[in-house]
Design a protein that fits this description.
The complex is a heterodimer of chains A (541) and B (249). With 541 residues, chain A is mainly alpha-helical. Helices cover 60% and strands 7% of the residues of chain A. Chain A is built from 19 helices and ten strands. Chain A has helices at residues 19-35, 38-45, 57-76, 102-112, 117-144, 153-175, 180-194, 200-208, 217-247, 267-292, 298-301, 320-328, 344-371, 387-407, 409-415, 420-459, 483-490, 510-523, 532-539, and strands at 48-49, 85-87, 99-101, 251-252, 265-266, 334-337, 340-343, 379-380, 461-468, 474-479. Chain A has a two-stranded antiparallel ribbon. A two-stranded antiparallel sheet of chain A has the order 2-3. Chain A has a two-stranded parallel ribbon with strand order 4-8. With 249 residues, chain B is mainly α. Chain B has a domain at 121-209: Cytochrome c-like domain (Cytochrome Bc1 Complex, Chain D, domain 2, Orthogonal Bundle), CATH 1.10.760. Chain B is built from eleven helices and two strands. The chains are: A mainly alpha (541), B mainly alpha (249). At the A-B interface, α5, α10, α11, α15 and α16 of A face α7, α8, β1, β2 and α10 of B.
Chain lengths: 541, 249
C-alpha cells in the first residue's frame, strides 16, 4: 500500500501529504518492516462479507463475550472465592450482622460499597444471558439455512461445543455469589449427580470435597469460571473464526451469486467500520439493560443456607431446559433393586437430554450420511426448500421450548391463575406430541410454500386485475416476476432419494437399506425447482 | 345434641388453651364495649351467618368460627377475602366490603363468643424491629411459599401464596397468627411476637426501598430475566442488525 513512499520523505513534487497522512505512512512502514503484516491485512481485509441481518448474530455472540470478558476482569479484582464465614458489615441493612461466606459478602461489597460495582455486575450478568441467547439464535440460523453442510461440519461442532461451554460458564458464574438461589441450583446438581447409580455418591463427594455444600465448591467453580472454561472458549472461538475465514462466508442464492464466489462488502473498510459500530451498539443495549433492570438481586436471596428454598427458584434461562426436564417427570419412578435405589426420575432426563445434545452435535454428519451428499455447499438453502430438515428443526425447537416452559411452570400457574398440576400435565403432553405436530405442520407448510414459489415463477403474481375478454370470459391478469426475483425462486438444488446400490462385493447390506429408507423419508416429499424449459414455456402463457 | 356437646368441649379446650397461652387475647376481647359487640352481631347475622352459622358453629358452606379470634376476622374481612364471593381453590381477595369500624365490630363479636387470637398491639407493627433477623426468619419460614422478595408463588391444585407487597402490617401479623387457608399457623411459640415484628420490619423495608439495581421485573427471578433478555434484549439487537443490513447502499 505504502510502497510508493520511502522512509521519511514523501515525493514533494507530486502531492504534498498532510502532516497526519505522513505520520500514518511512517507508522505503517515501521510496523510493516518489523512484522510483514501487510500480507495478512490484505488477505483478511479483502474477505468479503455478504449482507443479511441473520449473518450478524454470530457477531453479537462474539461482542457479548468481549463485554463479559472486560466486566468479568473487573469483578475478579474484588470478588473473593472463599467459603470462610464472616459477619457481614456492609451497607445493606437487612443483611447487616448476618454470618455468611466471604464469597457472598464480597459480592455484596461489589454491589453496594464499590463505585460502579453493581452496574458492572449487572452488565456482566445481562451480557451472559445475551451471549448464550445470541449463540442459540446464531445456531438456529446456521441450522435452518443448511450452513453446516460440507465443508463446515466441523465448525458446527466447534460452535455447538461453544454453546455448551457458554452454558457451563453461565452456570459456574451463577453459583459464585454463594447466595440462596445459586446454592439451591447446586443442590439440584448434587441431587442429579447422586442419582447416577453406583458412582453418583462418590462423584458428588469428589466434586464437593465431602458432604454438600462443604467449603470447597465455590473455589473450584471459580477456577473453572475464570481460568479453564474461558481459556477453552477463547481457543475455540479463534478456531471458529479461522474456519470462517478459510471457508469464506456462505450466501443466499441470488443473481450473480454462485457456489464459487462471495458477493458482499470487503472487511476493510466498510464492513469493519460497520462491525465496530455494531459492537458499541450491542454494548450500549446491554449497558441500558444493566442500568435500568435488576438482575439476580443476591441481597434478596441472602446467603446460602441448606434449609430454606424460595418459591420461584429457577436457573438462568439456558439451564432451564434441564430444570424443566426434571419437573416433567411423573412421580413414583424410584425403584429399589437389591438394596440400591434407582432414581429413574433423574436418569431418564439425564439420558434423554444427553441424547438430544448428542444428536444436535453430530447432526451435520447424520444428514450427510442420509442424503449421501458429498458436494461442497457455499450457497445457503432457503428453509422451505429442504422441508424435512426444517421440519426436524421445528420439532427440536418445540421440544426444547416445552422443557423450557416446564421450568417456569410455577410462574405460569400463578400468573395465569392455573393449577400447577394442570400446567405440568399440559407441558408433558406438548413435550411428546408437540414435536410430532410441529414436524408434520412445518413440512406441509414448506411444501405449500415451494408450490407457491413454483407457481409464481411460472405464472407470476396475481395482480388482482380482472379482465373481461370479448367472448365474455373473465380472467385475472398475472404479472410476471422480474428475473432477479425469479432467480431466487428457481435456483435451488433438486435432491432425490438415494437408489439402492450393491457394494463392491455385489451385496446389498442392511445398512444400505436403512440408509436408503432414511433418504427416502428425507427427500420423498419434494417439489422440483422450475426448469429452464418450463420457464420458457411459461413465458409464452 | 352431640354437635353441641362437641362444640362445648372444643370451646373449653381452645378457650382454656388460649387463655393460658396469650394474655393479650383475652385482654383484647374484654376491652370491646357491649354496643360494639351488638353491632357486630347484627352485621354478622346479616352477612356471614348464612355460611358460618348463627352461633359460629359452621355450615356446609363455611367452617366454624369458634375460637378463630378477632385476628382471623380482622384479617379475612379486612383484606376483602370475606364474605366469600365464590368458591374456588382459594378465597380470593376483593375490594373490602366494610368500614374499619364495622370490621372491628364483627371481630369483637366473634371474639366475645369464644376467645381466640386477638388483633395485635400497635407496638408490634411499627416496623422498627431488626430487619436482618426478620429477613432471615422470612427466608426460613415464608420464602418457600411467598418467594424471597415476597413476590408470591404457586401451591398445589391452583392454590397460591399471594404477593406480600402493599399488605398492611396488621394483616401480615394476623396472617402469621391465624394461618389463613393453606398457610400454616405461626403461633407465639413458633415465632415470638418480637420475631413477627422483625418480619414485618423486613417486608416494610423491601417496600420502602426499591431495588438498588433498577426495575425488579416483578422480583420473579431468572424466568422474568430470561424472558426479558429474549424479548427486549435480543429483540433490540436483531432490530439493529436488520437496520444495519437494510438496503440503502
Amino acid at each position: 500500500m505504502t510502497n510508493l513512499l520511502t522512509k521519511d520523505e514523501a515525493p514533494a513534487a507530486t502531492t504534498t501529504p498532510t502532516k497526519g497522512s505522513r505520520f500514518t505512512a511512517a507508522a505503517s512502514n515501521y510496523i510493516e518492516d518489523r512484522t510483514s503484516i501487510s500480507g495478512a491485512v490484505k488477505e483478511f481485509g479483502r474477505k468479503i462479507f455478504p449482507d443479511h441481518w441473520s449473518f450478524m448474530l454470530g457477531e453479537v455472540s462474539l461482542y457479548s463475550f468481549v463485554i463479559i470478558f472486560l466486566t468479568g476482569s473487573f469483578l475478579t479484582f474484588f470478588y473473593q472465592a472463599s467459603m470462610a464465614t464472616v459477619i457481614y458489615d456492609g451497607s445493606y441493612v437487612p443483611l447487616k450482622g448476618l454470618e455468611m461466606s466471604t464469597a457472598m459478602s464480597s459480592s455484596l461489597h461489589i454491589s453496594f460499597d464499590l463505585r460502579g460495582g453493581l452496574l458492572i455486575r449487572q452488565i456482566h450478568h445481562w451480557a451472559a444471558l445475551v451471549f448464550v441467547a445470541a449463540i442459540g439464535l446464531h445456531m438456529l440460523r446456521i441450522y435452518f439455512t443448511g450452513a453446516f453442510r460440507k465443508p463446515r461440519e466441523l465448525n458446527w461442532v466447534i460452535g455447538f461445543v461453544l454453546f455448551i461451554l457458554a452454558m457451563a460458564e453461565g452456570f459456574t458464574g451463577y453459583s459464585l455469589p454463594d447466595d440462596l438461589l445459586s446454592g439451591n441450583g447446586l443442590r439440584i446438581i448434587e441431587g442429579m449427580v447422586q442419582g447416577i447409580p453406583f458412582v453418583g455418591t462418590w462423584i458428588s463427594f469428589l466434586v464437593f470435597g465431602g458432604d454438600f455444600p462443604g467449603t470447597a465448591i465455590v473455589g473450584r467453580l471459580y477456577t473453572l469460571h475464570i481460568l479453564l472454561l474461558p481459556a477453552i472458549i477463547v481457543a475455540l472461538i479463534a478456531m471458529h473464526l479461522v474456519f470462517v475465514i478459510v471457508h469464506k462466508h456462505t450466501q443466499f442464492s441470488g443473481p450473480g451469486k454462485t457456489e464459487n464466489n462471495v458477493v458482499g462488502a470487503p472487511i476493510l473498510p466498510m464492513f469493519a467500520a460497520k462491525a465496530g459500530g455494531f459492537f458499541f451498539i450491542v454494548f450500549g443495549i446491554i449497558v441500558l439493560m444493566a442500568s435500568f433492570f435488576t438482575i439476580n438481586p443476591i441481597w434478596n436471596y441472602g446467603p446460602y443456607d441448606p434449609s430454606p428454598v424460595s418459591a420461584g427458584t429457577q436457573p438462568d434461562w439456558y439451564i432451564g431446559f434441564a430444570d424443566g426436564a426434571l419437573r416433567l417427570m411423573p412421580p413414583g419412578l424410584e425403584v429399589v433393586l437389591f438394596n440400591h435405589t434407582y432414581s429413574f426420575n433423574i436418569l431418564i432426563p439425564l439420558v434423554v437430554l444427553g441424547l438430544f445434545i448428542l444428536v444436535v452435535l453430530i447432526y451435520p454428519f447424520i444428514e450427510a450420511w442420509i442424503t449421501g451428499d458429498k458436494r461442497e455447499h457455499h450457497l445457503l438453502d432457503r428453509p422451505r426448500n429442504v422441508p424435512t430438515r426444517t421440519a426436524i428443526g421445528a420439532a427440536g425447537v418445540t421440544f426444547y421450548a416445552s422443557l423450557w416452559a416446564a421450568a417456569s411452570s410455577d410462574i405460569v400457574a400463578t400468573h395465569f391463575q392455573l393449577s400447577i398440576e394442570g400446567v405440568i400435565h399440559t407441558v408433558q403432553a406438548t413435550t411428546i406430541l408437540g414435536p410430532i405436530a410441529a414436524y408434520l405442520i412445518t413440512k406441509r407448510v414448506c411444501i405449500a410454500l415451494m408450490k407457491k414459489d413454483r407457481e409464481i415463477a411460472l405464472h407470476g403474481y396475481e395482480s388482482g386485475r380482472i379482465v373481461r375478454l370479448p367472448g365474455g370470459e373473465y380472467i385475472e391478469v398475472h404479472q410476471p416476476v422480474d428475473e432477479y426475483e425469479r432467480w431466487k425462486l428457481v435456483n435451488f438444488t433438486d435432491n432425490k432419494p438415494l437408489m439402492i446400490r450393491p457394494n463392491a462385493k455385489g451385496q446389498i447390506t442392511g445398512l444400505q437399506k436403512v440408509r436408503v429408507g432414511m433418504s427416502k423419508w428425507f427427500f420423498e416429499d419434494r417439489i422440483s425447482p422450475v426448469t429452464t424449459k418450463e420457464l420458457e414455456h411459461g413465458d409464452h402463457h | 345434641m352431640a354437635t353441641v356437646a362437641l362444640i362445648a368441649i372444643g370451646l373449653i379446650f381452645t378457650g382454656g388453651g388460649y387463655a393460658l397461652f396469650s394474655s393479650t387475647a383475652t385482654a383484647g376481647t374484654s376491652a370491646s364495649s357491649q354496643t360494639t359487640i351488638d353491632e357486630g352481631k347484627k352485621l354478622f347475622a346479616a352477612n356471614c351467618a348464612s355460611c358460618h352459622g348463627a352461633a359460629l358453629q359452621g355450615t356446609a358452606a363455611g367452617p366454624s368460627l369458634i375460637g378463630v379470634g378477632a385476628a382471623s376476622v380482622d384479617f379475612q374481612v379486612g383484606t376483602g377475602r370475606m364474605p366469600l364471593a365464590m368458591s374456588g381453590p382459594q378465597a380470593m381477595q376483593k375490594p373490602v366490603q366494610f368500614s374499619p369500624d364495622q370490621v372491628s365490630a364483627m371481630a369483637a363479636y366473634v371474639a366475645s363468643l369464644s376467645p381466640g387470637p386477638a388483633i395485635p398491639d400497635a407496638s408490634l407493627l411499627d416496623g422498627k424491629g431488626d430487619a436482618t433477623n426478620g429477613a432471615e426468619l422470612f427466608r426460613i419460614n415464608c420464602a418457600m411459599c411467598h418467594n424471597v422478595a415476597g413476590a408470591g408463588g404457586a401451591l398445589t391444585e391452583g392454590k397460591f401464596a399471594p404477593p406480600l407487597t402493599g399488605v398492611a402490617s396488621v394483616h401480615i401479623y394476623e396472617a402469621m397468627l391465624t394461618g389463613p387457608q393453606n398457610m400454616p399457623v405461626f403461633n407465639n411459640a413458633n415465632l415470638t411476637p418480637e420475631d413477627k415484628r422483625d418480619i414485618i420490619t423486613y417486608l416494610k423495608y423491601l417496600e420502602a426501598n426499591p431495588s438498588p439495581g433498577g426495575y425488579e421485573l416483578g422480583s420473579l427471578g431468572p424466568v422474568a430475566e430470561g424472558l426479558f433478555v429474549w424479548i427486549f434484549g435480543l429483540g433490540a439487537i436483531v432490530a439493529v442488525t436488520i437496520w444495519l443490513t437494510a438496503k440503502s447502499n
